[in-house]
Amino acid sequence: MIFQFAQLPVLEVVLPLIAAPLCVLLRRGNWAWLLAMAVCWASFIIAIILLTSVDEGQIISYALGGWAPPLGIEYRIDAVNGLVLLIISGIGALVLPYARTSVAEEIPEQHRSLFYTCFLLCFSGLLGVTITGDAFNLFVFLEISSLSTYIMVAMGAARDRRALSASYTYLIMGTVGATFFVIGVGLIYAVTGSLNMVDIAQRLETVGDLRTVRVAYGFLVVGIGLKLAMFPMHLWLPNAYTYAPSVVTAFLASTATKVAVYALLRFMFTVFGLSFSLTIETLTFLFLPLALIAMFAGSTVAIFQVNMKRMLAYSSVAQIGYMLLGVSFANVTGLTATLIHLFNHALMKGALFMALGCVMLRLGDVSIKSMRGLGKRMPWTMAAFVAGGLSLIGVPLTVGFISKWYLIEAALERGWWPVAILVVASSLLAVIYVWRVVEVAYFREPEGGPRRCEAPLSMLVPLWTLVAANLYFGIDAEFTASVAQLAASELLAGVMP
Amino acid sequence: MKHHLVLRVVTKVLIPPILLFALYVQFHGDFGPGGGFQAGVIFAAAFILYALVFGLETARRVVPQGTLRALVAGGLLLYATVGVVSMLLGDNFLNYSVLRPDATAGQHLGILVIELGVGITVAAVMIAIFFSFAGRPPTIKDEDW
């Protein structure tokens, strides 16, 4: 009975949510790890089933507690969040086998079972944000995932005390973002009297262009913008990614900001829609310039970083710029590019941060100095890093190329050819910061002799699985492109009752 | 606080009514104002008062760290169990109506157990937060003021 298909949407979120307190009770880190892994794989399988059942434009609706929407909380799955669910649970399922060795090295034993608790809470929070069709429920899940993220970032303090201040900054900024978000939801509720997204969208059409609705829109965009590290609001991100434990960085960099981008898309397109007076203006006059600045500023700052994790964190700021750029085109191709990049960026950043996690495990340091001659000492890890780097640049046969291809196509479709040139130009900046690492790793003599210190297989296998995915989806983009295209047209079509 | 006789006696008198009131708020929550969250906080207040007057170590003996940890997780699990049971009985997660043959009775039972779970977790978390803050070594000693 429990495995009835109809219950799958809620099981996706509830399984990790139940496993989290169980991890507290287990106390032993290894047991907690085993449970977390089982649950993440179960979620991954459920996500695959869910996505395959919405890949022809169907919609799955699940009424929580038997209360019919719009009064009750509704879980609503279409191609858009089906894809995002797949990204989150897939990365979770790959990060966990990798986590055991890395966590054992970086987090003291008495915190380990609590670490997996936080991980599962964050995991289920992110899935919940994605799956829910209720604006306030989204806020609750957003806070579940954020609060557990703050703790996980702070757990980096066992290695570097700066994790504490990074986590604190993130806490303040994240809370401001969440507060803005909930103010926005409150204002919408005041106008429409509903919290269900589809219902809100239908009621907003009859309400007309009120100032309250405009203010609500502003609060929502800024609030979610803080969570997704939109360019001028990205200051929490580099430190949080740098000082968090390696596993956390790999997981967050490939999921947390993606979920925030998803929430933004959901509110801008499904709830407010293109017919809302401010949507097009925001896209053209706010997102487009900010995205372009992020692409260049993020990449330029990345070039001058000494700490490699920090370099990739700034590169993430730039990559979020690409995603917002796709949104700002406001056409199907642009949104397709955003959704494809959502998926692809998760693959490449996941692989890159995992490779750095391997370096961290063996050398205890990820500064550019420690990378000297690492190509000889950790050949598999560095090869994976190079593959991920090539993908980040957008070399053909990697997923990065697919993303850039669709972005440029969307720019040309709108007739904004200077933007297309800028996309290519900013990719050249990525060449510089990836090359720095390659040069140091392959053309300098290793510091402590050419002694080999490759990472264990339990870490290399997930890492190379991601690298293989980078190449596979770079060569055969059929799956990502078709799902993303369907999702983009669903977003632009507005509400389908 | 050995010399504060009045405080100690008043505390001893107050703690049972506080606990009783918490239970009232807890179990009367589906008829009047109240519920698990409020009840949990009131319940924890009794323990915090005890710790303030009789010392942190004495209070820690009453609720050891391990018990506290189990209670934090246990309350949440109780909540989730209700949801899973309603799923096993063939309806949606957290649909209380199927818990008993009579739908209204089932809803009563469901909300009561769920609020109990909330109450346990909230009380345990409040106590845990107080213990961990109170247990920190002071950065400035009392004599240094």
What descriptors fit this protein?
heterodimer; A: 497 residues; mainly alpha; two-stranded antiparallel ribbon; 2 strands; 77% helix; B: 145 residues; 5 helices; 0% strand
The count of strands of chain A amounts to: 2
* SSE pattern of chain A, N- to C-terminal: HHEEHHHHHHHHHHHHHHHHH
Radius of gyration of chain B: 19 Å
- Helix content class of chain B: over 70%
Strand count, sense and closure of the main sheet of chain B?
Answer: none
Uncertain runs of chain B with pLDDT below 50, 5 residues or more? none
Number of distinct beta strands of chain B = 0
The proportion of residues in beta strands of chain A is under 5%
Helix content of chain A: over 70%
Q: Please give the largest β-sheet of chain A.
A: 2 strands, antiparallel
> What's the order of the H and E elements of chain B?
HHHHH
Instruction: Quickly count the domains of chain B.
Output: 1
Number of helices of chain A: 19
Description of the molecule:
The complex is a heterodimer of chains A (497) and B (145). By secondary structure, chain A is mostly helical. Chain A has a domain of 224 residues. Chain A is 77% helix and 2% strand. Chain A contains 19 helices and 2 strands. Chain A has a two-stranded antiparallel sheet with strand order 1-2. Chain B is an all-alpha fold. Chain B has 5 helices and no strands. The model of chain B has no long low-confidence stretch (mean pLDDT 90). In chain B, helix 1 packs antiparallel against helix 2 and helix 2 runs parallel beside helix 5. Chain B has one domain. Chain B is elongated. The two termini of chain B are 19 Å apart. The longest helix of chain B has 32 residues. Classes of the chains: A mainly alpha (497), B mainly alpha (145). At the A-B interface, helix 1 of A face helix 4 of B.
